[in-house]
Amino acid sequence: MYETSYKRPASLAEAAAIIAADDEAKFLAGGQTLLPTMKQRLAAPSQLVDIARLAELKGISVSSEAVTIGAAMTHYSIASSPEVQGAIPTLAKLASGIGDPQVRHRGTLGGSLANNDPSADYPAAVLALGATLVTDRREIAADDYFQGMFTTALEEGEILVRVVFPIPRKAGYSKFLNPASRYAMAGVFVATLADGAVRVAVTGAGQGGVFRATAMEEALGDNWSADAVAGIKVDPSDMLSDIHGDAAYRANLVSVMAKRAVVAAAG
């Protein structure tokens, strides 16, 4: 690991000021991606700016319409939150299936979304629920936030503060996980929102990262059942292919996970 310095700012404004003054500094939240990358000498930030303890990035609140979660909340805290379990149980269940206990106790919602790993779980929930991502500068709709593999709408130095998840009428998530990493080889989140809109988001399978499966959305809008999506084929040319599964395999997994997600939502 290259030499670096460590800063723990006392406020969001202080964190932003440190980053603004140093182009080589990086934010540190749970560190589940950044620290291993540094150990492999693939990243060498001049400073690590630890924002994991900032009060502005903490907390979970529930209104009649939405669940708001601070960006620094860990996967474990989301999974075990009575508020999340009561309002959006599928989101709590999704968080409980991320990585292993060590990852769940250190990794954060904001860190995952800022990194936008193509196999991460949260992007599917954010996109399917039509969440709003609130930064220290603005609000970003989920449909505008994800811009490709490891790419988001966040600008240089912009800090993700919290995510507002609309409470759906029903939702379900199912993923086929890599047995070693527990990352999704294909994960599908289905939801019917309060206004009746149906949204389906797929993670782990697409070449460009998380994406909406519009054909499945239309089918479920007419008939909410596993049979409605069973006949919808996913184009393998758009799928990832690696040592864990080729494109055709992942395309099939998307269809299978979609059917399971619909069943989970109905149950």
Automatic annotation (TrEMBL):
Q: What class of enzyme is it?
A: oxidoreductase
Pfam families per UniProt: FAD_binding_5
EC numbers on record: 1.2.99.2
Q: Which UniProt keywords apply?
A: FAD, Flavoprotein, Oxidoreductase
PROSITE patterns in UniProt = FAD_PCMH
Coiled coil segments of this chain: none
- Domain FAD-binding PCMH-type residues, every copy: 1-170
Annotated GO MF terms: FAD binding; oxidoreductase activity
On the tree of life, the source organism's domain of life is: Bacteria
Q: What is this protein called?
A: Carbon monoxide dehydrogenase medium chain
Its organism's taxonomic lineage begins at: Bacteria, Pseudomonadati, Pseudomonadota, Alphaproteobacteria, Hyphomicrobiales
The gene name reads: cutM
